[in-house]
Amino acid sequence: MLKRAWWAKSPSATWVGTEKPEEQDGSRAAWALDRRTDPLLGRTLTHWPEAKQSGGPQTCNNTPQLLKEHQALNGKAIRTRFPPEPNGYLHLGHAKSMNMNFSLAFERLEGAGVACKRETVFRYDDTNPEAETKEFIASLATDVQWMGWSPKVTTHTSDYFPVFYAMALELIDKGKAYVCHQSSSEIEACRSVAKARVALKAMQDPPPELVKEAKLDEPSAHESPYRNRSVEENHALFEKMRNGITKEGECTLRLKMYEEGGSNFNMFDQVAYRVKHRAHPHAGDAWCMYPTYDYTHCIVDALEHVDYSICTLEFETRRESYYWVLDALDLYRPKVFEMSRLNVSHVVLSKRKLTKLVDTGKVRGWDDPRMPTISGLRRRGYSPSAVNAFCRDVGVTRNENFIEYSRLQHFARQDLEERADRRMAVREPLKVTLVGDASLFRSYEAPNHPTDSTRGTRPLTLTKVVYIEASDFREVDSKDFYGLALNKWARLRYCVCLRCISVEKDGITCEIADKVEKDPRGKLHWVSSDAMQCELRDYDHLFTVGKVDDEKWESQLSDTSLVVRDKARVERLERPSDGTAFQFERLGFYAVDPDATTDRLVFNLTVPLKSGAPVKKEAGVSRKAQQEADRLKKEALKKVKPQDLFRTDEYSAWDADGIPTHNKAGEPLSKSLIKKCKKEWAKQKKLYESANKA
User: Fold this and answer.
1) How many angstroms separate the CA atoms of 82 and 247, rounded?
2) How far apart are CA 648 and CA 645, in angstroms?
3) 88 near 135, Cβ under 8 Å?
4) What is the set of active-site residues?
5) Helix-, strand-, coil-residue percentages of the chain, each rounded to 5
């Protein structure tokens, strides 16, 4: 790679392999050459012939020369990368990815006895000028720094644009790329033909509609009519694209990836370049055509000599195209590791959905405290340590997961319990006029933290008028109510006892006493008459349901995700810095919002003191009724042969055992879904045979 003409144009040439000789010294352990014993992956690479070998190295199809060059450049370093696209703000899913790429991956390697120098590249994956902005670029840098991660280097995919262009010319020369004038709908029509032909092979008695769609009488119907253009013609057309002569949508540069009969349609001659007559937020107006993610991210991984390319499972089917590009260009092939996406209850982590929430005004912006973005969590009062602790607890797996939001709240409480000073505030103030011994109207000491005496104390002045929570008073008492009622004693926290003696239009009047015969069970939070008026913003879940529906998600938005208490009062404070955390006793943990001023403080509810209301049982369904429904379902299944279990309209093709291989649209099922179906099939087989013994 180092001797190739385009290496000098590569930004990575300025930093890859520039460590001191003593840092480079050393060779990789045997696991670096054998994927099956890799401590991070522990599985074979399925897309290359060597994966079928009975022995020998699993080297991602790297040649000995490429491996030697990689080891010489990286020395003892193991390198990962965190490559978000700057088309939105980072969210919890990115926090999990950062945790993996900056920390957990190395811990797993070191836990297996691999001593390594940790290196992570923070890369802006910025190839789409339509969706990316300078605002997003700046926000990504802020969030990575705030989360506490220090990359070896920060790079931009757009800085490699000259290299991608040179490589595209090389692919054209090799006959592996061509300029295509098909529209997106025409490309999709060809793809449908290819899918239909693959589906036909798996069917014994295919429906006439599928046979018609396969167009068997037109052998090349699945191919672009421009696929076999000459090298010279492709060069001339690609140069027109480069020089801005071609209109947007007129043509693309595609890669000759697809081989007829292939079932991975991410390999269907992917687009490598498309024309976009607009400036780039980082690269400026030097280009009017831009490379695609599928073409570029594998190349940059290779040029930056990344050891592990870590991504989420939806990219698993793109692994084949990832290595196709690197193989076609004879570049170093990093190891690819896929992990499951983070799914958290009561939120959405789709950038498309988050963007729509912002654009339609459903939230106040990307940093709205209800948003699962890093900036939203920061504004709500979460700390980096709490978010990282949550990510470490969730861990990394290939299994689908669904994490309750309360798990994140747990780590926030754990963090805030230690670092937040205590104060008192009232959400809905009720005026209380106090009468009694004049000597009791004085200053009292309250601890700033109940378990850390080094935090000191603060004075609380008992004035003749104080304010308590309106919900802490009832005119009619009850046995399970520990608040204040007529002729009932309660205690103000850290000072006197009080008993309501009269109720007025604008409040109540209470007599006070230092002590009473029996210390009251009710301990009420309160503020004095010189307390500051403030605004408390009480946040709850953004969605009314835990598992948000992919289609109906907008109708599941909660109308009560924000309650503003604009008449609240809080102990007098100097204007704290943004994000300063307090526990407002008996209410919850709050953080100072950037909207706060010296005269009017604004606080965001980070988390309530308790985990929230108990889960409500679904109305209309008793446990007994549910058990009966489950019993009837099981009885019905006893009559179903395992080979008939999946014979439904949801699928269009099955193997000899009746396990589905294609969905109703004729698309091949993913490996993970087929694996799941096989487990269900085996379970059904056991149930059927047990119930139908001769």
Assistant:
1) 34
2) 8
3) no
4) 85, 341, 351
5) 35, 20, 45
